[in-house]
Design a protein that fits this description.
The protein is of the alpha+beta class and about 280 residues long. Helices cover about 40% and strands about 20% of the residues.
Amino acid sequence: MKQEFSERLNEAMQAKNISQAQLVEKTGIGKSTMSQYLSGKYKAKQDNITKIAEALHISPAWLMGIDTEMEKPEESLEEIFAYNLNKFMVKYDKDIDDVAKACNVKKKEILKWTNAEKIPAVDIIQRLAIIFDCYKSDLTEKMGRSTAHPRGVRIPVLGRVVAGIPIEAIEEILDYEEISESTARTGDYFALQVKGDSMEPRMYEGDVVIVRKQETAQTGDVAIVLVNGDEATVKKIRIMDSGIMLMPFNTKYDPWIYTAEDIERLPVKIIGKVVECRQKY
């Protein structure tokens, strides 16, 4: 998130033809602090994001990394967010107490949001998007993302998959990803957050893999596999006459080899094929 903020800040300054010295003067933010923002060492806090956005006359939401237009809307972001939040609260029959509890914040903070006095941080906006089953931009844009872009199919990003719990029943949903309608028509999909470093350098911890549910795989496929009822793992598959090999990309880890007997006894079960990896920075 620090790097994305830095990239967008540099892009906006270039688009507006404004120098670092000019931005420092307009915002009152220290020169060294601004340098750290521009280099990606630190991401600005909400009050400084607002100052920078006002000075550049751009959308604070865009600067925060939300998928929206760079240019500042006619209405303030606080007014747009308040309108959308109130709309979703009515739609889902949620009151201030419900939202405060779900977001783990005080009720007075919710009142500031609904009264257009301020907007929450990006992580809270993401939490609200999950609560209201919408995009972050549906909360921060005047018309909502669905009016500007074709809406694809949203699939849940799961923190883990374990034996005995159907995918659709897992409640540990971290986020949502979008796949195209044409992709969605080819099967049932879910997303899983990568853990550990066994699949580096192709996949890093925190990356999200898009998975098509299936119980078989071919040599060379990257699949989600349950072994001995434990949490699912992401591994490259090699089918052998005597069984199956689960291969990490990271050479410091050894492959896992299971015989046909092991596959039945433990068991070893393929639950999906990875079709895409979305890296997170």
